[in-house]
Amino acid sequence: ANASAEPVRSRNGAVESLVAQVTAPVRWVASMQRLAEAHPTARWLEIGPGSTLSGLIKRIVPGVTCTALGTAGDVEKWLAQ
Q1: In this predicted structure, what is the pLDDT of residue 77?
Q2: According to the model, what pLDDT value does residue 36 have?
Q3: What is the DSSP string of 18-56?
Q4: CA–CA dist 81, 75 (Å, integer)
Q5: Comparing C-alpha atoms, which of 50, 3, 55 is closest to residue 27?
Q6: Radius of gyration for the alpha carbons in the chain, expressed in angstroms and rounded
């Protein structure tokens, strides 16, 4: 959850988390660090136009592999690998 940087494991937790995301600050750095710790070998993808989030992830989690896929064609090529 963006507001807590903790996993949500229940329906009620998801509802509470969605409410918090509207009213609380986003804990983006803590969320990305938590994901990296939980999944150290993960490949990170940014799907959509631009690569701003990929750049941020690389600064937050040094050494991470993050790929920006800006178009449907990019996604298809990546999936075909």
Answers
A1: 95
A2: 94
A3: HHHHHHS---HHHHHHHHHHH-TTPPEEEESS--HHHHH
A4: 10
A5: 3
A6: 15
> Around Cβ 1, how many Cβ atoms within 10 Å?
18
In this structure, the number of other CB atoms found within 10 A of the CB of residue 32 comes to: 19
What pLDDT score was predicted for residue 79?
Answer: 95
Tens of pLDDT, residues 2-59: 888 888 999 998 999 888 888 888 899 999 999 999 999 999 999 999 999 999 999 9
Token pair 């993050």: residue? 66
Q: Cα 34 vs. chain centroid, distance in angstroms?
A: 10
Cα separations in angstroms, 16 against 25, 35, 48, 56, 66: 14, 20, 28, 27, 30
